[in-house]
Specification:
By secondary structure, the protein is α/β, with parallel strands linked by helices. Helix content is about 25%, strand content about 10%. It comes from Dulcicalothrix desertica PCC 7102.
């Protein structure tokens, strides 16, 4: 299988750098082909602006969405964007390795998403008419690929639980996992999270490395987070969850298949990419089971 690691940390000798190197080693030993996009080392341009396009359409008001759509169709995006898009389309799985800064990802990684996720590639895909709002949330150009976040956090695990002062980690990661990975069709694996990352002893790192190796060895057979697909019959014509679904749940967990609910009718993609159609049996997941 082909695996892309998108690495977003300014120091290659950091804990994030060590986890990235471990992933490259473990996956390569398993026979997978690995590419790494080390964004800081690449001096990745994080700002999405008119420089991302070789030609502009010449209108008075610049629209990034309009220019992105045309440039993606005409193959006139900047070369760095097209290179990362080619890696994404090549990959069977994508691992995002980064520290959680201010409850989100580093700006350089956010800029990677904003520039690489072109109109016509990650959004604006499929039919948009009637009650159908395009191929998104479980469908799209990235369907058939797997994605996993591997992140480091400075705080303690209890701070990131449902009653913890920082909020539940699964809620904090929802915009990334559901909105940026599931939206264009990737199957999203539970994240690998390291807490108190700046206080790890060598002995604790050995445990972390062992746990991460176990996760990597099951990158292609672990069940993904069972998000509901947009066009699977669970949402109404306004994309609101139908009242018969999500009993006894609230908040963001409404968008996960619940125990006893039938899986949606999203078609299983048959392609060169790995795809698991399993959507059930996920009752015991929590986001910190590294």
């Amino acid at each position: 299988m082909n695996v892309l690691i998108v690495f977003a940390h300014p120091e290659s000798k950091s804990l994030n750098g060590s986890l990235k190197a471990l992933a490259v080693s473990v996956l390569s030993q398993q026979g997978h082909t690995v590419q790494v996009s080390a964004l800081y080392q690449m001096n990745w341009k994080a700002i999405a602006d008119e420089r991302d396009f070789q030609y502009l359409q010449g209108t008075e008001r610049f629209s990034y969405v309009r220019e992105s759509k045309q440039a993606f169709t005409d193959h006139t995006q900047s070369p760095d964007i097209e290179a990362e898009q080619a890696k994404l389309l090549w990959a069977d799985a994508v691992i995002f390795q980064f520290p959680m800064w201010w409850f989100s990802m580093p700006a350089i990684l956010k800029g990677w998403f904003e520039r690489v996720y072109a109109y016509g590639l990650a959004y604006g895909v499929g039919q948009h008419e009637g009650t159908r709002w395009g191929d998104r949330y479980g469908e799209g150009k990235f369907m058939g690929r797997r994605a996993m976040l591997s992140i480091t956090v400075g705080g303690r695990l209890p701070h990131y639980t449902e009653r913890g002062v920082n909020g539940a980690m699964e809620d904090l990661l929802f915009p990334i996992q559901h909105g940026m990975l599931w939206y264009p069709g990737m199957d999203v694996l539970p994240p690998f999270v390291v807490y108190q990352a700046d206080r790890l002893t060598p002995e604790q790192y050995d445990v972390v490395a062992h746990d991460y190796q176990q996760r990597l060895e099951h990158l292609f057979d672990k069940s993904p987070i069972p998000y509901r697909s947009q066009n699977g019959g669970h949402y109404d014509e306004q994309q609101v969850l139908k009242p018969e679904f999500g009993a006894n749940q609230s908040g963001l967990r409404l968008h996960l298949l619940q125990s006893g609910e039938a899986a949606d009718n999203r078609p299983v993609l048959i392609s060169q990419h790995f795809y698991s159609g399993k959507r059930a049996g996920y009752e015991n997941w929590n986001c910190w089971n590294g």
